[in-house]
Amino acid sequence: MTAEKAVTSNYQVRRWVGLVEQTLHENGPVAGKPLVKAVCGVVIKNPFAGRYVDDLTALTEPSAALGTALGRRAVALLGGAEVESYGKGGLAGLDGEQEHVVACVTTVFGDALREAVGGGAAWISSATKTAAAGASIDIPLAYKDELYVRSHYDAATVSIPDVPRPDELFICVAVASGGRVHERVGGLTAAGALAAAHR
Hints:
It is a single chain. The chain is α+β, with helices and mostly antiparallel strands. The protein has one domain (3-197): CATH 3.30.1330.110. It is built from six helices and seven strands, in the order αββααβααββββα. It has helices at residues 3-10, 57-60, 63-77, 98-104, 107-116, 190-197; strands at residues 13-23, 35-45, 85-92, 125-130, 136-143, 154-159, 168-176. Strands 1, 2, 3, 4, 5, 6 and 7 form a seven-stranded mixed β-sheet that branches. Helix 1 crosses helix 3. 40% of the residues are buried.
């Protein structure tokens, strides 16, 4: 069974979303290689909208399929560039709770996402909230193999006019091909982190 099939057999999907951007410069010289960021998301019905339920495992247990499907879609949007940073998160519609989103992006989801994007040693930054349709969310990005690489502290923003509806969840991931364009405030570099890991 494909990851997408596993998602649709465990969640009621309304829409898949994919966004990509390439940044050539930030008011400075054109970068030798553009920074590519991709966001992929899925809009699903929230089975717990409008009521309080203690046990959220119905959202968590099948969430590896979400991590795999979204990770693979995000990698494809990078157009052959390697993933250097990642993040995760989502929105709960107003009849749901932030905890419903969190239940979808726990370690079960995160481990599958790591594998789908080619590995990663660092924990995955996340942002979740409850919001009305059209709200934006900034998915935090950090270097996938070492959280303290300052050049890769960034975010990818997504906003969809009719997402999430009150009884929906919007689960999304972001990946990037590198650090910020024109980063120059010092700190541990990706190359330095890689060298330290192989000592």
